[in-house]
Amino acid sequence: MNPSHQYGRFYNQVKPALESKVEEFKIFGYEKVKEKELWDYLTKKKWKKPKEEIQVYEIVADILSAKIGDIMNFTTVEAFKLGDFTLEDEEERKELLK
């Protein structure tokens, strides 16, 4: 979680929506997506420019409308930014292809 983000104060209120969305992803076969990854995507990408007077229902709507493709793209870009992602290790390649 990004506690310094302006919407961080709503985290406990919207936690059920986060849990619901993660469960939805699991139903579609994306078991490895966690609440933290979803929250990171929202705070670092979707809500990069936070609104001043946002309402809780708007945050919940953003959570429930998140698409797995957008989250995966964001996660991939973040992994490349960190620099600890390489394809040199045979085990890492096998894990990626699972």
TrEMBL record:
Source organism (scientific name): Mesobacillus boroniphilus
Name assigned to this protein: Post-transcriptional regulator
* Domain of life per record: Bacteria
